[in-house]
Every structure is written in structure tokens, then in C-alpha cells.
Write a structure and sequence with these properties.
19% of the residues lie in helices and 32% in strands. It has 13 helices and 35 strands. A hairpin with a 5-residue loop joins strand 1 (69-73) and strand 2.
Length: 662
């Protein structure tokens, strides 16, 4: 079973940005005595107050790779590891704790960033794909960077981690869709030799495997596309038996076995709207204890101590920050001790050693992209390790303010508004950013795109429209078959709210998003053509019919569920046709910029191609950027630079340059 640590969902702790990738800034500081006078005397009524604007930060320095990030502590507690740039790519470095020696680089990837890695005893394992195709292969090397071994060198095969088998220094359990691209078989693999043993042949409908605390494969989740069945066995020699079958609209999400390996800790919304942490009796197929439930938000997960075999806590993402509920007093006291030393930041423990006496602590906020510390439980000492982007100054970044508004049908929508530093928050050019997913959510925390746009003088508006996760089952179900309809109305109603409040200048509103957010951009320009001055679509869906046909093969077990949530191409053909922007491209009258990765496995390049073709036939202005070495978003920093340069030019052209007008 995976070691589960308390990790919050805020953006600064991800190797990638809230959208796709790791974004960074370099602070280009400039100031002059006359700047304040110019703003004071020339900018009344244009969204600039008598406070001085923040210095302009160079675009490339917003989006280049971090100085250091993704810190981990080794299982024996002797070393720390982290990602840092080498030849413009994120690579893995290792340093002995307490040593004055320089960190040792142990990987040498010059093609793509390494974005996911972990320790396995005295080795480090990492995942890497090719050109953004998301078919991640697993590699292993020692802490000197020697003995590099490609463990899963199979083309067009995705590797997933099922259990790192922490107590076994040589083996772990992985899943591969090598035999059947639509499903994953579990294998026990030797991380020193690459030798694999098939543990169970997936019959074609199992979508999840769960091990117990001894690393035994004891639980599986089977789906027919719309219903899920939990399968359980007492030991690896026994056959799997059905425990419970639930609709995809219900949640019974296994977290980990109880510490006697008999029952299950799970997140469940069966019989309730919000997910609660429960104990589920596998033998008798019933919930036997509800441990914690929040009235307003779903829980994020459960966290436990592997060494002491005890439940530590659970968390949920509230309107602003991650909130905690602790089951273990000692852990709560330790957490609060660290929090008191970092009172201005939201913290999380992102890594620990086998003895659980050393922890990597990540701390950040809406205006700080992340600091890393090493906490020694025995001494209580908190040692600063690094800032991910030390060139940033918090006072030059804009606060992210939680807001609420009411949609046209009375539903309350939570969101975030970021106003440029030095602005009075009135009559501003505004960029609306619907999140991707769409069954995801925006959170309070550092977002490089948001800060970049705010630094350029734009207000930035993010909203958790219906269907966003974390707000309960009813809120999620309200999104079913509502692409381009009430989901889009929630975005539109938020824009009208900002206009009514005098925050957004109605003539200077742009919409931008990636993935589903890209779809929402196209839908906004199509179905509310007068509302936006322009739009930016980043790897977005344009045609719901072709989108359904080109999903990755390992999504196919969920296709029936997608038909119920989005629409069936035959039974709901009129609905999908009405909601597909490319089929209504004649309604688009405002300028559009589209960016696409050629190797995107989720939103095929054809989604962008057909929209560009439809618009250019009509003579509508559309700028098109395609990167041949990227997938679902741009990973390589030179490609990010190109994209954001184009975005900046595009917004200045169609919304104006707020800094110059100031």
C-alpha cells in the first residue's frame, strides 16, 4: 500500500502548475519617483488607485523552471532530494543532510522535465514520457546516478504505481496496460533488475487495485462503465468476491485497509451528499463507523502513519484554505508546532523517512509559490531548505480573494478574484479563467498564470462552476449533460456579477482556459458572442462527437459514464450538436487564439484543427500555435515562453495594455 502523507491540494506543492506545468517568475525591479505622481494624476476611473503599481516582472521569469522544488527525504533519513534545472530541464539532485558538499545531480534528461519521482530504499525511481504522449515509463538509478535501468521500456504503454512496497527493498507493484491498452494488469517488479511477475490478469473491467498493509493484492474495483463493484479476497490464494455495487453517482473510494487488514477506510457519500471518512466492513458489506464529515465540503483523503499504524487525520478544501481534522493528538501538536513557526502560510508535510522523525514541509500562499523546510521531530528544529522561486517578492504579487455569487437558477457559486497590486478594483480589463476537468476545481494558492496577468494589469476571475468537485454530490450532478448550458451559464453569470459590481469593464473582458477551460472559452465566444472581447483556447475540446472518439484507450472503461455525464453521441446527438462550438463557428465574431500540443492523448489535435479551419473559411481572426513535441499542455519551458508571449501580445491587442494606460 502506498505511504500516505498529509498533502494539501494547493498549487505550490505540485511539480506542475495548477493548469499543467511548473511556472516561475524572475522579478525585474524598477521604480521612479514620478510613477506614483503619474498614476495619481492620470488614472482615476481606469482601475488604478493612488497606490503604486507593482514593478513589471519579465515574462520569461514567470514561466521558467523553479530554482528547486519537489523535495523528498530518503527512507533512511540520511539524504534529501529535489528537482532543479540542468540545461533548462528539471532533473533530480541528491544531497546528504548536514553535509557541506554540493548536491549531486543524478539524472541528465535534456529533452523533457522530470516531473514525478520517489525513493525506493537506496534507489530513486522516476517516470518519464515521450513528447507529452503521457505513456510514462519507469526508470531506476542509484543515488550516485549510476546503474540507470529502464524498468518498463515498452512503447505506447503507461506505467502506474500501485504499491511501492516500502518494506521490500527490491520490489514494488505496478500496473501496465501492455497486454490490453484499455486496462492495467498488476505486476511485481524488481527495481534492481527489471524482472516482472504478473500477479493477476485483468479480465477487462477492473480499473483499480488496492493492497493491504503487507503489500498483498486484496481489493479491486470493477466497472461496467456506469456501476462500480468492489471485489475483495481474504488472502491472495482466495478468489475475489463481490462486496458492494454502486452507481458512478455514488462514492465509496478506498483509502487503505484498517491496520488489522480486515476492514477498509474509505471516503463515502452513500446516503449523504458530502463524502465522509468511514470504516467499511468488507465481510458484511456495510459501513460500520463514520469518523468525520464536513457539512459543506467533500473530504480530500485520509492520512496515516505507516510506522505506528495509526490514523492521523483528514482534510477538506474550504472556501479559502485547506482545513484539517486530526485523529491523533501527537501528530496534531507536531503539525501546529510547525504552523506556529510559519503563521503566514499554508503548510503540508510532503515526505517523511522510515522512522517518521524527519519531514519535508512545504509552505506557501496565494502570493508565495513555495518554500521548503526540513523538520526534525526529535529536536523540534525547522530548517529552511529553499524557495522554489526566490526572485519573487510577495509584496509585488496580488492577493487572491475568495468571492461568492448567485447563478441565475439560485445556485451559489464560489470563486476567486485577483486584482492587480495598486488598483482600486474598478472598471478593470478582466481575464476570465474557467478551470479544466471539468470535474476538478480551483483552489486558493499561488497560480503563476493568475499572477502574470495581474502583474500586467488585468483582473483575473476564476470560478468553481457546477460540476466542480469538492462541493458534494448534488453540486456535481447538476453538471450532467450541461456542457455549454448551465455550466457555461455559471461562468457567464459570474462575468455579469463583476460588471454589475463595477469591477470588470464590460468592453474589455477576455476568456481563457485549458482543456475543459478551452472548451468553455470556445463556448463563451460561440454562445455569448457579445460578452467577450476575445478568447484564448489552450488544448480545448471543440466537437463533442470527435472528442468522444479520440479519448485514450484506458479511458474507454468509463465511456458509458461519460455518455451519462456529457451525452450519448446517438441518443443525445441533438444535445451534443447544440453544445459543440465548432458546429456553430458561424456565431464566433471575436478574435481567437488557439494553442495545441501535437501529441495530446486527451484532446486530440483534430479538435483544434477543425475549429481553426472553420473560422479561417469565414475570415474570422484566429491565431494558431502548435508544438510538435508537446501533449496536453506545454511542458518544455521554451514552449511555455512562446505561448505566454503570444498570449500577452494577443491580450494587449484586444484589451489594451493596462500598464501603459495607467
Amino acid at each position: 500500500m502506498r505511504t500516505i502523507l498529509p498533502i494539501t491540494s494547493c498549487s505550490w506543492k505540485n511539480v506542475n502548475s495548477p493548469k499543467f506545468f511548473y511556472f516561475n517568475k524572475f522579478l525585474f525591479i524598477f521604480a521612479a519617483v514620478w510613477t506614483g505622481f503619474f498614476i495619481l494624476t492620470n488614472c482615476r476611473g481606469r482601475g488604478i488607485s493612488n497606490r503604486v503599481m507593482a514593478p513589471e516582472i519579465a515574462l520569461e521569469d514567470f514561466f521558467r523552471n523553479p530554482e528547486k522544488a519537489a523535495f523528498r527525504v530518503s527512507p533512511d533519513g540520511r539524504f534529501i532530494s529535489f528537482l532543479a534545472p540542468w540545461k533548462s530541464r528539471l532533473n533530480i539532485f541528491v544531497q546528504e543532510i548536514g553535509s557541506a558538499e554540493e548536491p549531486r545531480r543524478i539524472t541528465a534528461d535534456t529533452v523533457r522535465d522530470i516531473r514525478s519521482y520517489f525513493w525506493k530504499d537506496d534507489r530513486i525511481l522516476y517516470l518519464q514520457d515521450i513528447g507529452g504522449d503521457e505513456n510514462f515509463q519507469l526508470f531506476s538509478c542509484n543515488i550516485r546516478g549510476e546503474d540507470v535501468l529502464p524498468l518498463t521500456p515498452f512503447p505506447k504503454v503507461l506505467t502506474i504505481i500501485i504499491d511501492d512496497l516500502e518494506e521490500d527493498p527490491d520490489h514494488m507493484i505496478i500496473g501496465l496496460n501492455k497486454r490490453n491498452p484499455e486496462v492495467f494488469d498488476p505486476y511485481r517488479i524488481n527495481v534492481r533488475t527489471g524482472r516482472m511477475e504478473l500477479l493477476y490478469e485483468n479480465p477487462g473491467d477492473i480499473t483499480e487495485w488496492v493492497t493491504d498493509h503487507e503489500g498483498k493484492l486484496r481489493l479491486a474495483v470493477r466497472t461496467d462503465g456506469v456501476n462500480s463493484t468492489i471485489l475483495y479476497r481474504k488472502d491472495e490464494k482466495s478468489p475475489f468476491q463481490e462486496v458492494i455495487t454502486i452507481s458512478f453517482k455514488e462514492t465509496l473510494a478506498p483509502q487503505f485497509f484498517t491496520f488489522d487488514n480486515k476492514n477498509l477506510y474509505a471516503l463515502s457519500n452513500i446516503g449523504r451528499d458530502k463524502t465522509a471518512l468511514v470504516v467499511f466492513d468488507l465481510e458484511n458489506s456495510k459501513e460500520i463507523e463514520r469518523l468525520y464529515e464536513n457539512d459543506n465540503y467533500d473530504l480530500n483523503g485520509a492520512y496515516y502513519s505507516k510506522k505506528y499504524k495509526k490514523l492521523l487525520g483528514t482534510s477538506y478544501t474550504g472556501w479559502q484554505k485547506t482545513e484539517w481534522y486530526f485523529f491523533d493528538k501527537e501528530f496534531e501538536e507536531m503539525f501546529q508546532k510547525v504552523q506556529r513557526q510559519l503563521p503566514e502560510y499554508e503548510i503540508s508535510f510532503v515526505s517523511t523517512n522510515r522512522e517518521e522523525d524527519k519531514y519535508i514541509v512545504a509552505a506557501g500562499s496565494d502570493r508565495n509559490p513555495g518554500k521548503y523546510y526540513l523538520f526534525d521531530k526529535n529536536s523540534g528544529r525547522l530548517e529552511f531548505l529553499a524557495e522554489s522561486r526566490p526572485w519573487l517578492k510577495e509584496e509585488h504579487l496580488a492577493p487572491m480573494k475568495p468571492i461568492k455569487y448567485t447563478a441565475r437558477d439560485g445556485l451559489t457559486i464560489e470563486g476567486y478574484l485577483t486584482i492587480p497590486v495598486g488598483s482600486d478594483g474598478k472598471n478593470l480589463p478582466t481575464v476570465v479563467i474557467p478551470h479544466g476537468g471539468p470535474w476538478a476545481r480551483d483552489v486558493w494558492g499561488y497560480d503563476a498564470e493568475v499572477q502574470f496577468l495581474a502583474n500586467r494589469g488585468y483582473a483575473v476571475f476564476q470560478m468553481n462552476f457546477r460540476g466542480s468537485v469538492g462541493f458534494g454530490r448534488r453540486f456535481w450532478e447538476l453538471s450532467f449533460k450541461q456542457w455549454g448550458r448551465s455550466m457555461q451559464d455559471d461562468i457567464t453569470d459570474g462575468v455579469y456579477y463583476l460588471i454589475r459590481e463595477g469591477i470588470a469593464d464590460s468592453s474589455r473582458v477576455a476568456i481563457y482556459g485549458g482543456s475543459y477551460g478551452g472548451y468553455a472559452t470556445l463556448a463563451g465566444l460561440t454562445f455569448t458572442p457579445e460578452l467577450y472581447a476575445c478568447g484564448i483556447d489552450y488544448v480545448g475540446v471543440s466537437n463533442l462527437f470527435t472528442f468522444m472518439k479520440t479519448i485514450p484507450p484506458y479511458w474507454r472503461p468509463y465511456l458509458e459514464m461519460m455518455y451519462e455525464m456529457v451525452g450519448h453521441p446517438e441518443k443525445d446527438s441533438a444535445l451534443l450538436a447544440a453544445a459543440s462550438p465548432v458546429l456553430h463557428a458561424d456565431k464566433i465574431i471575436k478574435p481567437l487564439f488557439i494553442a495545441q500540443g501535437a501529441n495530446d492523448p486527451r484532446v486530440n489535435k483534430a479538435e483544434s484543427d477543425q475549429m481553426v479551419e472553420a473560422l479561417r473559411r469565414r475570415g474570422v481572426e484566429v491565431e494558431y500555435m502548435v508544438k510538435d513535441n508537446e501533449g496536453h499542455g506545454f511542458s518544455n519551458e521554451e514552449n511555455r515562453f512562446d505561448f505566454y508571449r503570444a498570449m500577452e501580445r494577443f491580450l494587449k491587442q484586444h484589451l489594451g495594455d493596462p500598464r501603459k494606460s495607467a
